[in-house]
# Entry
Amino acid sequence: MPEITYREALNQALSEEISRDPNVVLMGEEVAQFKGSYKVSEGLLEKFGPDKIIDTPISEAAFSGLAVGAAMMGMRPVVEFMFWSFCYVAFDQIFNNAASIRYMSGGLINVPIVFRGPANGGTNVGATHSHTPENFAANTPGLKVICPSTPADAKGMMKAAIRDNDPVCVMENTILYNLKGEVPEEEDFIIPLGKARTVCQGNDLSIIAHGRSVMVALQVAETLQEKHGVSVEVLDLRSIRPLDLDAILDTVRKTNRVLLVEENKPFCGVDSQIAYLIQEHAFDHLDAPVKRVSAIDVPQAYSKALENFQIPNHDRVLAKAMELL
Amino acid sequence: MEGIYHDADLKDSPVSEKKTVVDSPDIAQTSDFSNLPINLQLDSEEKIRLYSQMVRIRRFEERSLRAYQQGHIGGFLHLYIGQEAVAVGSVSVMSEDDHVITAYRDHGHALAVGMDMDECMAELFGKRTGCSKGKGGSMHFFAPDKNFWGGHGIVGGQTPLGLGIAYALKHRKKKGACMCFMGDGATNQGPFYESLNLASLWGLPVVYIIENNGYSMGTAESRHSAGEPLARRGEAFDINWSVHQGHDLYEVRDAINNALVLAKESSSPSVLEIVTYRYRGHSVADPDQTYRSKEEIEEYKQNKDPINLFRDKLISEGVLSDEKANLLDQAAKDEAEASAEFAIASPFPEVSELMDDVYWETDNPDQKVSSGEMFFESSR
Ligand SMILES: Cc1ncc(C[n+]2csc(CCOP(=O)(O)OP(=O)(O)O)c2C)c(N)n1
Ligand SMILES: [Mg+2]
# Structure
């Protein structure tokens, strides 16, 4: 299986789906001539031309809404946000229109749209550019939301998202764009939404994470094994809504101790809901309270010295894990 | 680009004192639009149908108001009474490839595109037989089979959607255009300008129709908008714009038809401002006592009522008689009454239906491709 980057995996997914279905177009700021702010769409303009790969002005509300209108008419637009942080100026179009039109029309109108782009901290770009709105999206019935953490997931889940008949928010990560991994080449390589992935097996503690926090969880699992002889199971949620509750409960029932790790801010973050579900469904299997590591609860800090501490890092996650053992 | 300003009746208009008249070389100084080709095409039967459409909308809404007062309808109910010629005139020049989207004051557009009173009234009542199965309400009517895309509750929120409908038409090389209706107040929303820029930049066949009824809730145009007329704002984007009187159905037809032709022949957007008036409060919850005078409302009703004016016109054309008009009126009342009876007799949706219609996928379990929990109720 070839090793490619997360960026290339997304590029392949877009390219294959645009080739496969004439309704699919990619639009956003700098996606065409500039080849994408993060070069995710490199080569696509040359391959598909300006009718399919569409540069927009800096008008998130208008092009998001335009894409929703086009999706109502049966197209399958993929909208790129340069950062998910910028979706806030298009909030109405995503959170009212894309999410609710099917419901408000009594199921008469579908909105098969993908909103995608990076949603992460850790790049020293300050509070306005570091939002992780997966909890907002997951809090909005009508939207689906996924956070692929590997190149293979990026490709397989992006393809699933584009083929999905409901609006899907794909939250990527600028730090992961250069990550390399094995990615299947088949045209129909699809990873269904709503399936978590056990990244490593273990017996003593479960770390449940999504997005880049999965990598931090893995590093901590290695440290715990090497230094303390503790066997950690790491579960990558991959998809937030739909959510693989079975996989969550399985690992909890196996290790009886859970640490939740995410880049979301803690209050009403994704992991608040996960913790709630665990206590509701697996209370008797817990040998310790559920613990969490989230981003420190302040606007994202600019300084490396602060931000590296603010987002879940190896040492903070390790320290919290030790509290559980 | 020069706008056309049909200001023949401007002096009497309730918003006239505040308006700056824009000089335009190609002002059509006509107040009789009946002899324009688009209107000469109409035969008597079609004229009567247009008249009857307006009457049906009015009687439907009057009946819905009573139902509201009787407690059958909750929430907001924004009545279109006074503005009927705009929706009916506009829809009457649509072809089957053209599309309509509007804001929350949507009953008139819904009935004009051919939705039936029963499904509309039932929706107001929150009944399962409503057009959105009771899940949308007054502000959220939809009929995609009639090219009617809602019914949108967020002021200005539909302006990018209308753009997207036009974009999809152009992308698929269809011949149609999208009429995107909005209020005067909605012109002050940012997404509208983002949309105008894109509409012009990409040459999209969208017609923005500002139904200027003079008020954004209780805020008169002169208190909410700088720079009039509102349609002139299109000029900054090189978009054709013009202002028209909305009490004359013939004038509306001509204006909209021209814009649709432009949209379809040269894939150009337009901004049309149609001056109109609403008789009732902003919604039925608005006591309508603080921001305008009874005289102002009376003045419009007396001199500019679109239904009365069109009736008089048709009578003078020999197309309609008082008798026939009365019959049509009675028929509309009966139809509205029957729709209220239908709504009353209809069942409410079952609580078990609450979670239907959210996701395509959960509504089509046989074609489900994802797994996992989609809803977070304590169901297991
Ligand atoms: C974003 C947003 N802000 C405020 C409101 C509340 N609101 C509903 S209608 C309205 C006035 C809009 O007036 P206009 O656009 O002129 O339309 P009209 O009601 O006259 O048809 C307001 C303020 C809303 N629905 N959406
Ligand atoms: Mg208004």
Remarks:
- The mean pLDDT of chain A is 98.
